[in-house]
Amino acid sequence: MDYYMLPKNGSCSDYDFLLKQVHLKSAKRLLETCLLNGGLYIKMGQGVAAINHILPKEYTNTLEKLQDKCLPTTKTDIQRVFYEDFGSTPEEIYSDFDYTPIAAASLAQVFKAKLKTGEDVAVKVQYGDLQRRFTSDLGTIMFLQDVIEIFFKNYNFGWILRDLRKNLTLELNFENEGQNAERCAKDLKIFEYVHVPHIYWTYTKPRILTMEWVNGFKVNDVERIQCENLDLKDVDLKLFNMFAEQIFHTGFVHADPHPGNVYVRKNPKTGKADLVLLDHGLYEYLPESVRKPLCEFWEAAVLRDEQKMKLAARQIGIKDHMKFAEVLFQQPIRIHGGRIKTKLSESDIEYIQQVATKNFELIMGTLKEMPRNMLFVVRQPLW
Question: Which of 48, 60, 158, 332 could form a disulfide with 52 if both were Cys (CB 3.0 to 4.6 A apart)?
Answer without folding.
Answer: 60
